[in-house]
């Protein structure tokens, strides 16, 4: 009898614990973003301007700079190690990992654009040239898996099916500047262009369909928020389900990251006195109807170039002032 009572008590305790845990998770999900939760992170980040940041899990992340550095953290960004130096003249603009081992960086110098690839979590990097050789730095990349990937740029939209060893034109001799590429699922993807044009695929990039909106718009970054698809259109944010309406963004908000269809953070910069740049960080809980902003002195951060989600309830942005500058926001 005593054993049955003990088992019953333990069962009730476990049920209560589960309810508390689920309630806490729901509460975390519904917590509003607050600019007061923005904090400066003390870190060993190298002194450079970082252009792209990604985390593959809650602790491991990578960033690339405009002077050839690839760096890695294994402790949520508290400490960083330079894992590759590709040269001071090599501008690195985007990094992506498809899994814990396979990663990709697009880069460029005065001779052309390149893909750098790792298959061992960043310990070594192999340079892959495009065919045909393209001048300048590509705009974006996206790999669906270690074999299939895409690269975009001015008049450049190419695809590889062998991990970057060979490349084929998706659209040859195009008049468009192919800006960003992103996939909402393993089959559905988007590419944004100038002249109000974007491309859509529903078969993992085998075929692409062209849609033209307002030809005066230049469409750039692509964002997904639940089932919503947003494009940055410089003059505002465009939801492709209602492309006739532009959502006004705060002045200086250039790098966005959506948490859901209403909550979003942004980073960027503004100028004062016509010359001095000041780094800005924004939050909204109502899709930019209202927002809060934190401005940093130029010595701290005169711009923020990259932003990434670290974990379920934490986002990091890297800026640059007199040195690299890291902020995090939690909710």
Describe the protein in words:
There is one protein chain. The protein has about 325 residues and is mainly beta. The longest helix has 29 residues, at about 1-30. The chain has one helix at about 1-30; strands at about 40, 50-55, 60-65, 70-75, 80-85, 90-95, 105-110, 110-120, 125-130, 140-145, 150-155, 155-160, 170, 180-185, 190-195, 195-200, 210, 220-225, 230, 235-240, 245, 255-260, 265-270, 275-285, 290-295, 305-310, 315-320, 325-330. The chain contains one helix and 28 strands. It has a four-stranded antiparallel sheet, with no helix packed on it. It has a four-stranded antiparallel sheet with strand order 2-3-4-5, with no helix packed on it. A four-stranded antiparallel sheet has the order 6-7-8-9, with no helix packed on it. The chain has a domain at about 260-330. A hairpin with a 7-residue loop joins strand 16 and strand 17. The termini are far apart. The protein is about 10% helix and about 45% strand.
Radius of gyration: 22 Å
Q: Which stretches of 5+ consecutive residues score pLDDT under 50?
A: 23-27
Structural class: mainly beta
Number of E strands: 28
Percent in strands: over 45%
Element order: H for helix, E for strand: HEEEEEEEEEEEEEEEEEEEEEEEEEEEE
> Span from first to last CA?
47 Å
Q: Specify the number of helices.
A: 1
Helix content: under 10%
Q: Describe the sheet with the most strands.
A: 4 strands, antiparallel
Mean pLDDT over the full residue set: 90
Shape: globular
> Could you give the order of strands across the largest sheet?
1-28-27-26
């Amino acid at each position: 009898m005593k054993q049955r009572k003990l088992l019953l008590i333990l069962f009730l305790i476990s049920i209560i614990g589960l309810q508390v845990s689920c309630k806490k998770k729901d509460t975390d999900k519904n917590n509003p973003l607050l600019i007061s939760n923005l904090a400066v992170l003390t870190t060993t980040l190298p002194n450079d301007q970082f252009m792209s940041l990604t985390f593959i899990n809650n602790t491991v992340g990578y960033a690339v700079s405009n002077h050839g550095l690839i760096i890695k953290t294994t402790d949520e960004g508290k400490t960083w190690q330079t894992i590759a130096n590709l040269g001071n003249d090599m501008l690195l603009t985007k990094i992506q990992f498809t899994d814990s081992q396979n990663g990709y960086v697009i880069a460029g110098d005065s001779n052309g654009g390149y893909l750098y690839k790792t298959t061992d979590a960043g310990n070594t990097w192999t340079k892959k040239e495009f065919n045909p050789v393209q001048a300048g730095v590509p705009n974006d990349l996206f790999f669906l898996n270690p074999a299939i990937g895409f690269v975009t740029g001015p008049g450049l939209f190419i695809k590889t099916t062998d991990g970057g060893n060979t490349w084929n034109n998706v659209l040859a001799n195009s008049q468009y500047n192919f800006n960003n590429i992103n996939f909402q699922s393993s089959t559905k993807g988007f590419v944004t262009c100038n002249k109000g044009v974007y491309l859509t695929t529903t078969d993992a990039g085998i075929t692409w369909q062209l849609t033209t909106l307002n030809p005066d718009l230049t469409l750039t970054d692509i964002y997904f928020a639940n089932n919503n698809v947003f494009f940055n259109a410089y003059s505002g944010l465009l939801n492709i389900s209602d492309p006739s309406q532009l959502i006004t963004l705060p002045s200086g908000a250039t790098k966005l990251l959506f948490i859901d269809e209403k909550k979003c953070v942004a980073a960027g910069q503004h100028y004062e006195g016509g010359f001095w740049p000041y780094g800005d960080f924004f939050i909204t809980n109502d899709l930019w109807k209202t927002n809060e902003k934190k401005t940093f002195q130029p010595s701290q951060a005169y711009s923020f170039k990259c932003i990434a989600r670290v974990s379920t309830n934490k986002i990091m942005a890297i800026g640059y002032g007199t040195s690299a500058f890291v902020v995090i926001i939690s909710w």
